[in-house]
Amino acid sequence: MTAATMVTGRAHRRIRPQRVLLHAFLIVTAALWLIPILYAFYTALRPVSDTIQHGYVSLPSALNFNNFINVWSLAEIPYYYLNTLIVVVPGVILALFLASLVAFAVSRFSFRFNVALLMMFTAGNLLPPQVIIVPLYWLYLAIPIPEIIKLPFVGMFPSDNGLLYDQYIGIILIHVVFQTGFCTFVLSNYMRTISKELNEAALVDGAGVWTIYRKVILPLCTPALAALATLEFTWIYNDFFWALLLMESGAKRPITSALNNLQGSFFTNYNLLAAGALLAAIPTVIVFLALQRQFVRGLTLGSTKG
Predict the structure, then answer these.
(1) Cα separation of 291 and 132, whole Å?
(2) Whole-angstrom Cα distance, residue 200 to residue 218?
(3) Helix residue spans in 109-146 (DSSP H)
(4) Dist CA 65 CA 165 (whole Å)
(5) Which residue(s) pair with 263 in the sheet?
(6) At what angle do helices 66-74 and 17-45 cross, to 10 degrees?
(7) Judgement on whether residues 71 and 59 belong to the same structural domain of the protein
(8) Which residue range(s) make up the domain with 60?
(9) Distance CA 160, CA 109 (A)
(10) How many whole angstroms separate alpha carbon 111 and alpha carbon 114?
(11) Mean per-residue pLDDT for 90-113?
């Protein structure tokens, strides 16, 4: 085979119709995702007076960062960042920790209620949160915060009413309850791909169950944990439903409340709202970029083992 023939063959392979269609699909999909974000950024850079005069679909007469500067102070973005992180960070850590314990038990050991236990945790994801609004609301008004929970979080209970209602810990617990099932399902499937010979080797070396979980299985689940941490951080961070239902004090609510406060009764400055939404999205983007490599590995590695 001559060099010219090899070059022609490679060129022919590079322009296969399937590959062209794949790239076209990826380009269109990326554009559909990016256009709203770029348009929000474009709107945030325009003064509201310019938008009112020329309309949202028009060329700008001026672009500046005044909306970002104004919304930073007007919506108290730093304060609501802190409010949100107080809920998100403990919520993600606790959900992943509990889910990893259950997943370890149901995937590494065989016992009578193995499958039933996994199904019980997974079934919680099938229940719409709206179904339990009324009973949960009354439960939060009736259940006091146990002292064993209050002591480590003394600084998190300003104007303490002694109840789960209107407290950070109450929002953390409801997120943990609803997210643990999904995390258990993902982690148990991932742990099943890990060879059980590792357990046996660790037992021969004298390791206990806790040591096997902490030093053998958990390090191997880093990609899955990183992928789940990224997803859980985003889901809990963007939540407004539970904070609206289970919190009375506006000063304790997450950053989604800050965006909601920017809407007026008779007029809404959408340029300011777009700037606030972009600022609110920064922490989730940072988390994704920080865990990007592990996130991709977690989505793909478990499906290729076995």
Answers:
(1) 34
(2) 16
(3) 114-123, 133-142
(4) 39
(5) 268
(6) 70
(7) no
(8) 17-64
(9) 43
(10) 5
(11) 88
**Is 150 domain-assigned?**
yes
- 139-191 per-position pLDDT tens digit: 888 888 766 565 555 455 454 677 888 888 889 999 998 898 889 888 988 88
CATH code, 102: 1.10.3720.10
Q: How many Cα atoms occupy the beta-carbon half-sphere of 76 within 13 Å? A: 15
- Look-up: residue for tokens 């865990």? 291
Could you tell me the pLDDT band of residue 306, with boundaries at 50, 70 and 90? very low
φ, ψ of residue 124 to 5 degrees: the values are -60, -25
Q: What is the CA radius of gyration of the chain?
A: 25
Q: How far apart are CA 49 and CA 55, in angstroms?
A: 10
Please name the residues in contact with 42: beta carbons below 8 A apart, sequence gap of 6 or more.
60
Residue type, 188: S
Name the nearest CA neighbour of 229 among 189, 279, 283, 193: 283
Beta bridge partners of 144: 163
